Amino acid sequence: MKNIAIFGSTGSIGKNTLSVARKLSNRFKVVGLSTNSDIKTLSTQIREFRPLFVCVRDKEAALKLKRALSSRVKIFAGEEGLVELAEEKRISQFVFAISGSAALEPLLSAIKSNKDIALANKEALVMAGPLIMRMAAKARVRIIPVDSEQSAIWQCLEGQEKQKLRTIYLTASGGPLLNKSKTALRRISISSVLKHPRWKMGKKITVDSATLMNKGLEFIEAMFLFNVGWDKIKILVHPEALIHSMVEFVDGVVLAQLSATDMRIPIQYALSYPERLNSSLSRLDFYRLKSLNFRRPDTLKFPCLGLAYQAAKELGTLPAVMNAANEIAVEEFLKERLSFIMIPEVVARVMRKHRNISSPGLNDIREADSWARREAHRFIN
Question: Same domain for 25 and 113?
Answer without folding.
Answer: yes
